Amino acid sequence: MQWHLAMYRRLLAMQLRSQLQYRASFVLDVLSSALISIVEFAATVLVLQRFGNNIGGWTMIELALLYGMIDVTYALTDLFFGGFDPDYFAPMVQRGTLDQLLLKPTNITLQILGSTLRLRRLGRIAQGGTILVVALALVGVRWTPAKIAYLPVVLLGQVGFFGSLFIIGSTTTFWTVQRVEIINVFTSGGRVAMYYPMHIYTKWVRRIFTIVPVIFLNYYPALYLLDKPDPLKMPALAPFLAPVVGFGLLAAALAFWEFGLRHYASTGT
Fold first, then answer.
1. Other beta carbons within 10 Å of 5
2. Residue 63 to residues 8, 172, 235: CA-CA distances in angstroms?
3. Phi, psi at residue 59, to the nearest 5°?
4. At 158, is the pLDDT very low, low, confident or very high (cuts 50, 70, 90)?
């Protein structure tokens, strides 16, 4: 395992060197990524202004907390799990280049993880992180040791959740060859949905988000951090299910990935 991890670090180092070779292009990529995030947040602010700077009892700063958490974790997922992005992985299956990786004496999962490192996402991470830090400073969280320890666990759980969707989406291409678009509904669609408090959605939408279950990843941890009452009257453990959901789904996705590898028959390309 230590040898495999050493190879993974070398793969990341190669990606780092190759992308930093053209510094001007790298800087422009980072800035463009940050600009996209700024535009998305500005759109959220404009929507909020139509509702008197308040949606479902949540202020702009409280919504910024929701936005910042998701923006940071989704960008981190895109940075480190980019090799499992179905848009990147599906062509590997179609062209047969995945077969080349399977022949190498290195763990295939680590090879896929190390096959791309989207450093341009650093701009989005920095911008989302700034929003998160400012929101935490202004929103008036009554910090306790438990909250301080729990926040990074929540963020890691969110990364695990989005990473699991990437892995599931890529694994399905073993049978479909093309990416399955419904996965994008849960990744990009779920990300946007988590920008807002879940109680503003209709009952049937909340049921979907409970089954998926994105409702526990951002909304309930935010209720805990802000000491807000739960309008949905979920069990008292709901705010603490984020790591269970995130890491649990990641473990299930990796098991599905191993199942897919065992049944992979190549495209014959």
1. 11
2. 37, 34, 23
3. -80, 175
4. very high
214: enclosing H helix or E strand: none
DSSP 3-33: HHHHHHHHHHHHHHHHHHSSHHHHHHHHHHH
Report DSSP letters for 237-258, one per residue. Answer: TGGG-HHHHHHHHHHHHHHHHH
d(CA 167, CA 187): 11
Enumerate residues 6+ apart whose C-beta is below 8 A from 226: 62, 65, 139, 141
Lowest mean pLDDT among 32-41, 125-134, 238-247: 32-41
d(CA 57, CA 67): 16
DSSP assignment of 119-181 equals: TTHHHHHHHHHHHHHHHHHHTT----HHHHHHHHHHHHHHHHHHHHHHHHHHHHHHHHSSPPT
Q: CB–CB of 55/196 below 8 Å?
A: yes
Phi, psi of 196 (to 5 degrees): -120, 155
Cα within 13 Å of Cα(154), Cβ side: 28
- Which residue in this structure is represented by tokens 């008197």? 52
Beta-carbon count within 10 A of 212 CB: 18
- Indicate whether 163 pLDDT > 90: yes
State the Cα–Cα distance between residues 213 and 259, nearest whole angstrom. Answer: 23
